[in-house]
Amino acid sequence: MTAIDTGTPTPPDLSGKNLSARRAFANRAATLGIGLCVLVAAFPLGLVAYEVISRGASVMSWDFLTEVIPRNYRTAGPGMGPAVVGTLLITGMAALIAIPVGVLGAVYLNEYGKSNPLARFIRTMADVMTGVPSIVMGLFIYVGYVLVVGEQSGFAGALSLACLMLPIVIRSTEEMLRLVPDELRQASSALGARKWRTTLGVVLPAASSGITSGSLLAVARAAGETAPIIITVGLTYIYKPDLFDGQNTTLAAQIYRNAARPFEASQERAWGAALTLIAIVFLFTILSRIIASRFAIDKR
Amino acid sequence: MTSTASPQTPDDLDLGGDSRARGTDRGFRGLVTFAGLTVLIVLGLILVTTTMRAMPAISHEGLLGFVFGTRWAPNDDVFGAFSMLYGTLVTSLIGMLIAVPVSIGIALFITEVAHARSRKYIVTIIDLLATVPSVVFGLVGVLVVVPFITPVYQWFAGLVEPIPLLSSLFADTNTGRNYFTAGLVLTIMVIPIITSIAREVFDTVPEADKQAAYALGATRWEMIKGAILPHSFGGLVGASMLGLGRAMGETIAVALVIGGSFHISASMFDTGNTMAAAIAQQWGESTGLHTDALIGIGVVLFAITVIINFAARWVVRRAEIKMRGAHT
What are the per-10-residue average pLDDT scores of chain B (328 residues)? Predict the structure, then answer.
């Protein structure tokens, strides 16, 4: 009788209220599971932060950062000075080697090689090189440098860290160079600048903040590396400001050395060293973040 | 797929000028080319120098004997690395079994579930996880987790004792430094890698596919199952392989929590060793042929990780091309 029904159809119910119980449950369970995954990742981070800060803070002091390292595991008391200096010097030297080479390599990839076979091959191999375990880099420098000059040294450690940083710097720098608008290159060329002047005077400065930020991230990674240091640097208890003067040490190596000993004193030093190392690594990371966000070039 | 230079970039334009300026240009080109080549040079040198150095130890056992020999006794000049190869595989496998689903879950949470604001926090958490040095994970592992988890292992071993297969897989060994703890530490270390690549992969899923699934009445989970996961399968395989490469090469954190024994045990709760960890543990006290053998383990590790990385990049790239080809 009522033909009106066909005239104004009720809008379909999109609220999901009439979802079958099974489907609704599956959806809710899946969302819960996905959320739990985040907790699984957040929990260890929280645990590490809590343990390192609470246990590290109790031994942290100016003396701890400056005194020499006790020779005996059992000796209580401060001392990580040589490791702090060693970490900064070795990482700094590694950066001095890896960043110039890496940036120039990226210039080749983005400005010269582009998509020719060699550049593509280098790109692939740089990716593969990021996956080479750090201990292999240590063994390589041991065979290729330490055995040649006859002793472990801070410089050997810097070389191995530089090998680890190189592919990271190359790939991050190339990303940044790619963001530099082509108009800048063309404008520079139109003014008569040669390619090398364009690259050094226009392209690299335009990308400098991104390059700095990427390089700092690579430095942060390298500062926490342990395995290559154990292989190439050896061990010392005293200040060694000269990287070419025999065995040296870093915070990461000291954590490894002290962590597994059943002595309270050495474990405390390991926690203190861990807090110091994390502080250094985070400083670099945050610096990198700030530079990246402050001076970012327009992403187009 | 990378270079976006437009064709009018004046690359090979001859602008004339004196020969000195042209010389500088050529010199600069040579310099940057060399810098690019360092990657290839270093990789080549790694292969050649370490292999040559390890040769005495490897030929002492024969390549097969070196890789698959089960006895590692440096004092008797016997170098069989299989217990370490086994440990590397077992710990990585444990790590991957946990890390892959968790990472995929996190990536899905970031791309599909989280609001813009909470997304930022979660990304930060994952980034922070990636910046913590591995030795710090090892430190927390050995001094905090191991003492805490040992009774848990014992309880679990007691629980599964009557069940035939599980009882040997999880046999009680009274120690918290074992394969399983090492696997747990590896899990945490590879989660950031797999998550970040999985996110990139999920980002390539076309919005239209997702909206289409919703339009058909799919719930979010059905949309993920039907639109996102099938589309991303190749990329996820690649991401997992990259994580695997990282897990196999991880040294210090594992060296601290795996116990450091050279036997092959079916029990996940037993002590063991991995290739990378064994090198770090024995380095200080090794001399002569022993050192060469450790370098030889490094060569095997290098070969395995390079192959895995190559394969992973290839899989990821294939997946990318497939996706791009279909939708743009």
Answer: 46 60 86 94 95 92 89 89 93 95 95 87 90 93 92 89 86 86 94 93 90 90 91 91 93 91 88 93 89 94 93 84 61
Angle at which helix B288-327 crosses helix B19-61, to 10 degrees, equals 120
**Topology (CATH) of B63-327:** MetI-like fold (1.10.3720)
Cα-based distances in Å from A75 to A69, A79, A269: 10, 10, 10
Structure tokens at B51: 């292999």
Report CB contact under 8 Å: B125, A199: no
Please tell me the distance in Å from A105's CA to the nearest CA on chain B.
4
Going by the DSSP 8-state scheme, the letter that residue B259 receives in this structure is B
According to DSSP, the residues that pair with B78 across neighbouring strands are B73
Question: Cα-Cα-Cα-Cα dihedral of B91, B97, B101, B107, to 10°?
Answer: 20
pLDDT of residue A254 exceeding 90, the answer is yes
| B208 vs B273: CA distance, rounded Å | 49
CB-based contact (8 Å) between A32 and chain B? no
Q: Domains for chain A: give ranges and CATH numbers.
A: 78-294 (1.10.3720.10)
Query: Do B184 and B220 meet the contact criterion of CB atoms below 8 Å apart?
Result: no
For residue B79, the cross-strand partners are: B72
Residue A223 sits at the chain B interface (C-beta within 8 Å): yes
Alpha-carbon dihedral angle through residues B218, B220, B224, B226, given to the nearest 10 degrees: -10
Summarised one tens digit per residue, pLDDT across range A43-69 is 999 999 999 999 999 989 898 898 888
> Is A45's Cβ below 8 Å from some Cβ in B?
yes
